[in-house]
Amino acid sequence: MSIKKKVLAGVMSSTVMLSALAPVTPFVHTVVAHANTTDDKIAAAEATIANAQASAAETQAALNTIQASVDAANARVDQLVAESKATNAQIESLRQTIDQRSESLKTQARSAQTNGTVTSYINTVLNSKSLTDAVQKVMGMSQVVKASNDMMQQQKKDEAALEQKLVENGKAYDEATVLQQQLEVQKHSLDAAKAAYESTIASTQEEKEQLQAKKAEEIAKAQEEAARQAAAQKASDEAAAQRIAQQQQLSTNTNTPSNNTPSNPAPSNNNSSTADTVPVNNNKPSGSVSKPSYSTGRNPYPVGQCTWGVYEILGGRMPIYQGNAGNWVAYANSSSPAPGAIMVFSPAAAGNDLGHVAVVDSVNANGTVNIREANYNGQQYVTSRSNVSTAGCSFIIL
C-alpha cells in the first residue's frame, strides 16, 4: 500500500469511528408529568436544563472532533490537488519522452525496412578495414539494436506507470472528496443537535423562571392568608377576653349570690377547689366593690367550701368578702405572695368558672408557695399543698 493510501485510510478510519457518534437525537424537553407542586415542576425543569447542558457539551466535543477531521480531509484534498498538478506535469513530460522515443523507433524501423538489417551487417563487414574494425562495427550495430529493444521495453513500462499513476491519483481524489462530504454532513447534523439543546435550555429556563414567579406569588398569597387568619384570631381572642371581663365586672357589680352551688361539688382535675359563695349585700351601689364587713365570730360561708376554709384557717381574723371565690380578686392588693395572705385563684388558674381561694403558709425560693385550703379535689375540710404555682393568682395582704 502506498503512503498516500495509508494516510487516506487513517483519515477514513477516524471518520468511521466518528460516524457512530454523529447521528445525534436532539434532547426533547419534557417537564415531568406527575410533578404536582410548583417545587416539583421547578426541580424537573432544573433537571431538564442540566441534562440538556450536559448533552450540549458532549455534542460540542463531538463537533470539535469532527471539525478536526474536516480540516484534515480538506488538507488532504488540497494535497491531492497539488499532487495531481505535479503528476500532470510528470505525465506531460513522460508523454514528450514517449513521443520522442516513438519517433526514433519509427525512424529505425523505416531504416531497417529500407536497407535491410542483414544487408547492413554484410556491408558493414565488407567495408571494414580489418577484422577488428569489422568486429567493432558489428558490436556497435548490436548495441544500437539492443538500445532500440531497451527503448521499446522502457516505453511499455512508462506507459504502464502512467496509467497506474492516473488511476491511483483519481481514486485518492475521489475518496478524499467523499470523505469531505461525509464529514460535512456529520458536522451539519451535530450543529442541528447543538441548536436543539440550546433551544431546550432557553425554553426550559424561561419556564423555570415562570414557575419561580408563580411560587413567589403563592408564597405571598399564603403569607397574606396567614396574616388574615392571625388578625381574625386576635380579634376573636380580644372579643372573648372582653366578654369575660364584662361578665366578671357584671358579677362584681351585681354581687350575685351563688345559691346554686352544690354542697359537695365534683373534684377538680386542675388542683383547684370548686368555687364558694358568700351572702350578697344587695344594697351595694352598682358599679362599685362593696366594702367587706368583719365577722361577728360565726363563719358566714357554706361549710366545706374554700371560702369557709380560709375563714377557719385565719380564725375569723378577716373581712367578710362577698361574691364567688374568683370575685375576691376585686379585693386583692398585691401580686406577690406573703405568709398569711389570701391567695386568689382566677377561674383560669383554678380550672373552673368560679375560682378558688387559699391561705399562704410560706413562700419558697423558686417562687412557689405552700398553702392550706378547703374543698381541694372535693375534700370538704382543710388540707395542705406544697410548691403551688402562683401563675394567674393575686393576693390579699391582711
Q: What is the topological layout?
A:
Elements: H1 3-19, H2 38-115, H3 117-126, H4 131-254, E1 293-294, H5 306-313, E2 319-320, E3 342-345, H6 347-350, E4 356-363, E5 369-376, E6 379-388, E7 393-396
Antiparallel strand pairs: 1-2, 3-4, 3-7, 4-5, 5-6
Helix pairs in contact: 1-2, 1-4, 2-4, 3-4
What is the CATH first-level class name of the largest domain? Mainly Alpha
Please provide the ordered H/E string of secondary-structure elements.
HHHHEHEEHEEEE
Counting H and I runs of at least 4 residues, what is the number of helices? 6
Strand order of the largest sheet: 6-5-4-3-7
> Alpha-carbon distance between the termini?
126 Å
The CATH topology name of the largest domain reads Helix Hairpins
Contiguous uncertain segments of 5+ residues: 250-290
CATH structural architecture of the largest domain:
Orthogonal Bundle
The helical percent reads: 55-70%
Coarse shape: rod-shaped
Mean pLDDT figure: 78
Structural category is alpha+beta
> Number of domains in the coordinates?
2
Largest sheet: 5 strands, antiparallel
Cα-atom radius of gyration: 62 Å
Strand content of the residues, in percent?
Answer: 5-15%
Would you give an account of this structure?
By secondary structure, the chain is of the alpha+beta class. It folds into two domains: 3-227, Helix Hairpins (Orthogonal Bundle); 265-396, endopeptidase fold (from Nostoc punctiforme), CATH 3.90.1720. Helices cover 61% and strands 10% of the residues. The protein is built from six helices and seven strands. The chain has helices at residues 3-19, 38-115, 117-126, 131-254, 306-313, 347-350; strands at 293-294, 319-320, 342-345, 356-363, 369-376, 379-388, 393-396. It has a five-stranded antiparallel sheet with strand order 6-5-4-3-7. Strands 1-2 form a two-stranded antiparallel sheet. A hairpin with a 2-residue loop joins strand 5 and strand 6 (379-388). The longest helix has 124 residues, at 131-254. The relative contact order is 0.08. Mean pLDDT is 78; it is low at 250-290.
